[in-house]
Amino acid sequence: MVTRQPDVDPAVAATADDIEAMRIRGAATIADAAAEALSTQAKRSDATAPDVFERQLRAAAKTLYETRPTAVSLPNALRYVLRGMDGESVSALRDATIARAEEFQRELARAQTTLGTVGANRLRDGDVVMTHCHSTDALACLEAALEDGKEVEAIVKETRPRKQGHITAQQLREWGVPVTLIVDNAARRYLDEADHVLVGADSIAADGSVINKIGTSGLAVNARERGVPVMVAAQTIKLHPDTMTGHTVEIEMRAESEVVSDEERRTITGDADDGLVVANPAFDVTPPRYVDAIVTERGQFPPESIVTLMRELFGEMTGEPWEP
Ligand SMILES: O=C(COP(=O)(O)O)[C@H](O)[C@H](O)COP(=O)(O)O
């Protein structure tokens, strides 16, 4: 459970629980939900003094921030909204915060649509795309290609342990895209039939490394060996400004229960129930040399040049998202 801050509205706490339990998941969706939650906190605040209002909003941001560590879209969203919290009275602060959250959500949606059109330009009629996990940014590229009248097919990795590939497969089938669903271990074999690997990102580091669902790096290495280009679809909200000052991106470790049931654990260890460690990292790091292009709403970039865009958009940022 997330540590609850005092004065945080129950609706914000519920959003934090949903993010932590992955009922709300995926970097862009988490960012959208976080902005919405801050707006809700602003709407429902019972503060009568501006400093109390601000304290409540910062407490809400901290509660949301502590849910999952890897997707930088979460702190980036919190920072963006809190920076718009401006005014001399509670009502001015409330209006400004709500307007800022709405602006963030609008820009997020717009960025994804624009990014989709950029990514679609890389896809040709008849292409076969291999996907990993479920990324709304990656799907935006496929949706835009379909809208351009291109026919595409997809090889969808199921993505253990939580099988987010099923969500991707479901969305693609709704759009009428032929889908071949494969287990993760079959990826190398099926790369021979793929024209692109298309994945999303939770964070992008200053050196162009891509942090995304566990298994992305292995897929990218295999794709390079097979000569299949790797395209990463990532709005600029996924750029991790702290990495410009040498910080690393924390990789979330999730519960062992996602990998083995209690019964399976007992079968492995017997009654002793010791000596078995189940490691379940949720994300991994793909070095820039295995990535062909990072597709953003500002155009496509070779990974090594992404730091220029990062500096332009974020400057040198320090401090926790909820700090003034
Ligand atoms: O790794 C994941 C989701 O991981 P999880 O299921 O653990 O949240 C997605 O590829 C990115 O978040 C990008 O998604 P989007 O493009 O929708 O932001």
Automatic annotation (TrEMBL):
Gene3D superfamilies xrefs: translation initiation factor eif-2b, domain 1, Translation initiation factor eif-2b, domain 2
EC number(s) per entry: 5.3.1.29
List of residues binding substrate: R25, G26, A27, A28, R68, N212, K213, K238
Keyword annotations from UniProtKB, A to Z: Carbohydrate metabolism, Isomerase
One GO biological process term: pentose catabolic process
Superkingdom of origin organism: Archaea
Catalytic activity: alpha-D-ribose 1,5-bisphosphate = D-ribulose 1,5-bisphosphate
Molecular function per GO: ribose 1,5-bisphosphate isomerase activity; S-methyl-5-thioribose-1-phosphate isomerase activity
InterPro entries for the chain: IF-2B-related (IPR000649), IF_2B-like_C (IPR042529), Initiation_fac_2B_a/b/d (IPR011559), M1Pi_N (IPR027363), NagB/RpiA_transferase-like (IPR037171), R15Pi (IPR005250)
Signal peptide: none
Residues annotated as catalytic: C133, D202
HAMAP family: R15P_isomerase (MF_02230)
Other facts: Reaction proceeds via a cis-phosphoenolate intermediate.
Function: Catalyzes the isomerization of ribose 1,5-bisphosphate (R15P) to ribulose 1,5-bisphosphate (RuBP).
Family: Belongs to the eIF-2B alpha/beta/delta subunits family. R15P isomerase subfamily.
The protein's name in its UniProt record: Ribose 1,5-bisphosphate isomerase
